[in-house]
């Protein structure tokens, strides 16, 4: 009884986290699109507007992906802890990690282990 209730609660929490991730991506996409269109129609620097749009959209996707990975972890660990579900989770995490890594490189324009321009090494 208690285990079934805990599993149900974990499933509900996972769904809320998953919907939050989807919402973050959707709101981020629409929000950055509106900002982009406003900047684009004002006649400013179009290359800068496009770069800002891509960067903002990438950040929204990255944040949403973090929530989706968290939901997958909750689902796998708390709701359906089988060997197959763990293997599926591993595949999902690998794919999403690669996607996150690629987006981070695209947004920042550098590898994660490289320092930013002008950044000093702390000793």
List the topology elements.
Blueprint: H1 2-41, H2 46-79, H3 83-108
Question: What would the keywords be for this entry?
Answer:
single chain; mainly alpha; 123 residues; 81% helix
Quick structural summary:
The protein has three helices and no strands. The chain has 123 residues and is mainly α.
What does this structure look like?
Helices cover 81% and strands 0% of the residues. The chain is mainly alpha-helical and 123 residues long. The chain has one domain (2-108). Helix 1 (2-41) runs antiparallel to helix 2 and helix 2 (46-79) runs antiparallel to helix 3. The longest helix is centred in the first third of the chain and has 40 residues, at 2-41. 10% of the residues are buried. The model has no long low-confidence stretch (mean pLDDT 84).
The coarse silhouette is elongated
Structural class: mainly alpha
Distance separating the two termini: 55 Å
Number of DSSP strand runs: 0
Please indicate the percent range of residues in DSSP E strands (runs of 2 or more).
Answer: under 5%
Report the radius of gyration as a whole number of Å: 19 Å
Uncertain runs: none
The total number of structural domains is: 1
